[in-house]
Automatic annotation (TrEMBL):
This is Alanine:cation symporter family protein. One of its GO terms (molecular function) is amino acid:sodium symporter activity. It comes from Metabacillus litoralis. The keyword Membrane applies. It is found in: Cell membrane. It is a multi-pass membrane protein. The keyword Transport applies. InterPro entries: Na/Ala_symport (IPR001463).
Length: 484
């Protein structure tokens, strides 16, 4: 089983795929004239605009749901793994994929808003919806929906729950079975409460956990501030084959940086659009810009916090593809949260293990919550005609079962399965957004035009020649009239 999964990953994450991910992000950056730089001020402003409604959530709540999915074990364990197998240079490539990936996040999230629907009184949208309505390939939309359900409900929750269980076991000697039971009880209470409860939990927990983690990382950095020039030089020289120790593994640095970067920030993966579609906004580009900024929050803030803690304290190992140890500063410590724990312990003795365990709990817990929402949206897409309630119930049971299984079993296979799930979604979604970029680019141009005129932009798809944006054509004005 493990050999088959690893072979499949070898195809899904082969070198050409890595460069395709970089290329798509760069293409969208050029086509949007690097909106990720031009509109940073606008992104921050839009995060706090708008209110929730009966059908949708506020921009900030949609951001929080998306960040729930983006900020997970990838920020702690994934960043450490990238350094373990790609060296310090992998950090630069994580930054690079975040920067150019912000444009991919804009395209996919704007498309989700353009083609969203009002289904059973709630906004629904995402790749399956925009593939069917925008491209007209229902078979391809169904394929994505099935892949997303498999990835989000079955393959990936185990990665998050395993990290929680291992962290709590190492820090507090907590039995993994007990951790699994507690996890499924807490997650069950939230997911049986629907999207509103998920949004309510996310909007409070996500900012608290991210800010707390960054504050501790700043303490570690300032305690070792003399290392700043050396660490920055090491990151950049290793990324471009200029470092004598790590220069020989630049290919691994790119591969691991891009793979773990995409895993963490999810730009172009097709997960963020599900939350983006749920937002109550007057123009699709508004939520597209908000979701672009969420990529920055995830990678440039939270992943960087982990990377700096590890590199500033030197608490890491790096293994070359041929098995040679290029750095062996933590003998016997497996790649993952142990690096971050050791980094914090070196500055604040007795605090590292517990803090990382608690951080992992919050990061991974909210990610599982977001996974459920994404899976639920795709089940809703597949059952929108039959409106089958039992399908939603089965989904909840499957996700809770996968969560418990991950908490009580080995991590290696869980990570490999997660990479398969992620790889499938990335492949399918990248094809879709490449084919469908035009409506999102038109929406961006329209948004910028209205802003220059001093207006609060409102979306009119008919005037822009965008077809099948049914909600905006028939229901948006009706909803506004009812609200006023």
């Amino acid at each position: 089983m493990e050999n088959f999964v690893n072979a499949l990953n070898g195809v899904l994450w082969s070198t050409p795929v890595i460069y395709i991910c970089l290329g798509v992000g760069l293409l969208f950056s050029i086509l949007t004239r690097f909106l990720q730089v031009r509109h940073i001020k606008e992104m921050v402003k839009l995060m706090f605009e708008g209110k929730s409604s009966k059908a949708g959530v506020s921009s900030f709540q949609a951001l929080a749901i998306a960040l729930s999915g983006r900020v997970g074990t990838g920020n702690i364990a994934g960043t450490a793994t990238a350094i373990a197998f790609g060296g310090p240079g992998a950090v630069f490539w994580m930054w690079a994929i975040a920067f150019i990936g912000a444009s991919s996040a804009f395209i996919e999230s704007t498309l989700a808003q353009i083609y969203k629907v009002k289904q059973d009184g709630e906004y629904r949208g995402g790749p399956a919806y925009y593939i069917e309505k925008g491209i007209g390939w229902k078979w391809f939309a169904v394929t994505f929906a099935v892949a997303a359900i498999l990835a989000m409900a079955l393959l990936m929750p185990g990665i998050q729950s395993n990290s929680i269980a291992v962290g709590l076991e190492n820090a507090f000697n907590m039995n993994t079975t007990i951790t699994g039971i507690i996890l499924i009880a807490l997650i069950g209470v939230i997911i049986f409460g629907g999207v509103k409860r998920i949004a309510s939990v996310a909007q409070y927990v996500v900012p608290f956990m991210a800010i707390g983690y960054i504050v501790v990382s700043l303490i570690i950095v300032f305690a070792n501030i003399g290392e700043l020039p050396g660490v920055l030089k090491l990151i950049f020289s290793s990324a471009f084959s200029l470092d004598s120790t790590f220069g020989g593994i630049v290919g691994a640095a790119i591969a691991w940086g891009v793979k773990r970067g995409i895993y963490s920030n999810e730009a172009g993966q097709g997960t963020g659009p599900h939350a983006a579609a749920a937002a109550e906004v007057s123009h699709p580009a508004k939520q597209g810009l908000v979701q672009s900024f969420s990529v920055y929050i995830d990678t440039l803030f939270v992943c960087s916090a982990t990377a700096f803690m590890i590199l500033f304290t030197g608490m890491y190992n790096t293994e070359a593809p041929d098995g040679t140890m290029l750095a062996n500063n933590l003998r016997g410590v497996e790649p993952g949260p142990g690096y971050t724990q050791a980094a914090i312990e070196s500055v604040i003795p007795g605090f590292g293990a517990g803090f990382v365990a608690v951080s992992l709990f919050f990061f991974a817990f909210t990610t599982i919550m977001a996974y459920y929402y994404i899976a639920e949206t795709n089940v809703a897409y597949l059952t929108r005609v039959t409106k089958s309630k039992w399908a939603m119930f089965v989904l909840k049971i499957v996700l809770l079962g996968a969560t418990f299984y991950g908490a009580t079993n080995e991590a290696a296979l869980a990570w490999a399965l997660g990479d398969v799930g992620l790889g499938l979604m990335v492949w399918l979604n990248l094809i879709a957004i490449l084919l469908l970029a035009k409506p999102a680019l038109i929406a961006l141009k329209d948004y910028e035009k209205q802003r220059k005129q001093g207006l609060d932009p409102v979306f009119d798809p008919k005037a822009l020649g965008i077809k099948n944006a049914d909600y905006w054509e028939t229901e948006y004005k009706k909803d506004k009239d009812q609200a006023s």
